[in-house]
Amino acid sequence: MTAVGFDAPGGPDVLRPVTVPVPRPGPGEVLVKVAFAGVNRPDVVQRQGKYPPPPGASPIPGLEISGRVAVLGEGVTEFLPGQAVCALVSGGGYAEYCLAKAAHCLPVPEGLGLDEAAALPETLFTVWHNVFERGYARDGETLLVHGGTSGIGTMAAMLGKHFGLTVIVTCGSGEKCARALEIGAAHAIDYKACDFVEEVARITGGRGVDIVLDMVGGDYVARNLKCLAPDGRHVTIAVQGGAKAEINMAVVMTRRYTLTGSTLRARSDAFKGLLAQEILANAWPLVEEGELRPVMDARFALGEAAAAHARMEAGDHVGKIVLEI
């Protein structure tokens, strides 16, 4: 089969087509004939040599796919050959065929395009776990999300709105702020034109937000804490601005903050399976009813993976980028 990989870390141009054997599903796995693969920031970081795949995972990039079940592994009874599925995978998505744990697959409902289906797993799993499970989001609370027009940001805005949250996002331009409001954010702050800490205070009447979903890290953390209401929760899911932060722990204590975070790729198969069940029960009905759809930015052919990565790194995209296999 054809896949896209790289021999050595580098810029987007290191990505190239390669011919590799079609993998065989083991117990509890399915082999999926891939229709589309989502392109995510971790793919870019992996290509740069800063995010190696966990032990046992495919070195081929790609953490989410859609397609049709080609072969069932031993013990798999919940899917049928030819059935349309999307899946969270630990690697291998940029290929004509990809292995997925059956427990990490979700059925693609009628009315959901396979391009859209491939754009759901990574962001939906990430947002559900970090906002609703780690962040304990509840109806009526306020959520601040950085990167409001990213795949994660758009999903957080839409999912938050569906579950009764008031979502404030930050974006890098007035145009992106306007798009974020169309997508579902209640408020959008152009962080290049104003201080987001002051704007959050103004929007919330000085109270602050209940949760911050942070993809920046670094010096944003101390600023994020200034945005939190008492008993607020700060959830870190990426450190694009730096892995180290200096904060005032006396403020954390006196305002009773909770600081947490997670990475998804290295979590156990059992954990991801349980998370998939939570999503299937709580968020997937919105997808089945047509009420939740990913925001789609651009579609590239598999052989154009380098261009897809270049678009993501340029930061001009709004929503999800996918590869058509």
TrEMBL record:
Q: Lineage from the top down?
A: Bacteria, Pseudomonadati, Pseudomonadota, Alphaproteobacteria, Sphingomonadales
SUPFAM superfamilies from the xrefs?
A: GroES-like, NAD(P)-binding Rossmann-fold domains
Alphabetically ordered keywords of this record? NADP, Oxidoreductase
Protein name as catalogued: NAD(P)H-quinone oxidoreductase
KW Membrane (keyword) present: no
Which organism was this protein described from?
A: Novosphingobium clariflavum
InterPro entries in alphabetical order: ADH-like_N (IPR013154), ER (IPR020843), GroES-like_sf (IPR011032), NAD(P)-bd_dom_sf (IPR036291), Quinone_OxRdtase_PIG3 (IPR014189)
Give start and end of each Enoyl reductase (ER) domain.
10-323
Highest taxon above the source species? Bacteria
Instruction: Please indicate if the UniProt record lists Oxidoreductase as a keyword.
Output: yes
